[in-house]
Write a structure and sequence with these properties.
Ribonuclease iii, N-terminal Endonuclease Domain, Chain A, mainly alpha, Double Stranded RNA Binding Domain, disordered N terminus, 3-stranded antiparallel sheet, single chain, globular
Length: 252
């Protein structure tokens, strides 16, 4: 298995961003040469592309998402959390669990995942159904964040923890270095934002739940001032934090 640093020079200060021109090569963007390229292909496949293929072949579209990047997203979510937690413990040796936890929650939340994916040009490499592509699905924060977790999972399964760590520390470098003080808990920050403007408190709604009972995945929506934030997670509190972060980014 060959591991290498990105072959393209930094652009606009980001260490992994692809240069302009013809379509970027996914492995160059990620800085990892895959021994099992099928993992990369799966990581870059949105469920709409899988369903579209089934329909074109006259098969009934299933809701399982099998063949899409959802399983790799599940793995990548855990790998990212471990690697960022490890990095934070190294970088802030004097901080306690609460402060480190707030930093971690911010760095692995949907808005940061989506912004990193956008910065390195991951959207251009995604495979989605033609209709979804025309609708701009590749630019949705939820799709970009899910794909980012999936490629981290793919790198981990292909090469182990070292190349996954290498990728995360390059891709998240700017976000890590600009985080001077521990950020506020997203739900607390959103509540304070609403109270400061005399608005009703944020209203959280469970908009969906997928997966088996032992490994559920929740979709939470939060609404304030007529705007809505969306978050997903394996626990309601995680999904609520992501939804609050997503809405705070919109309100800002």
């Amino acid at each position: 298995m060959a591991l290498r640093h990105p072959l393209v020079p930094p652009v606009h200060g980001h260490p992994l961003i692809a240069p302009p021109g013809d379509g970027p090569r996914a492995e160059d963007i990620l800085g990892h040469e895959f021994a099992r390229p099928e993992l990369l292909a799966e990581a870059l496949t949105h469920r709409s592309a899988v369903i579209g293929v089934r329909l074109s072949r006259g098969r009934t579209a299933r809701r399982s998402g099998a063949g899409s990047n959802e399983r790799l997203e599940f793995i990548g979510d855990r790998v990212l959390g471990l690697l960022v937690a490890e990095w934070l413990a190294e970088r802030f040796p004097d901080e306690q669990e609460g402060e480190l936890g707030r930093r971690l929650a911010h760095l692995v939340a949907q808005p940061v995942l989506a912004s990193v994916a956008e910065a390195i040009g991951l959207a251009a490499t995604l495979s989605v159904a033609p209709g979804e592509a025309r609708a701009g699905v590749k630019r949705l924060a939820t799709v970009l964040a899910d794909a980012m977790e999936a490629v981290i999972g793919a790198i981990y399964l292909d090469g182990g923890i070292a190349p996954a760590r290498n990728f995360v520390r390059l891709a998240w470098r700017t976000d890590m270095e600009t985080q001077a003080a521990p950020p506020k808990d997203a739900k607390t920050a959103l509540q304070e934002w609403a109270q400061a403007r005399g608005l009703p408190l944020p209203a959280y709604l469970v908009a969906g739940r997928e997966g088996p009972p032992h490994a559920p995945r929740f979709r939470i929506e939060v609404t304030v001032a007529g705007q809505t934030g969306i978050g997903t997670g394996t626990a309601k509190r995680v999904a609520e934090q992501e939804a609050a972060s997503d809405l705070l980014a919109k309100l800002a």
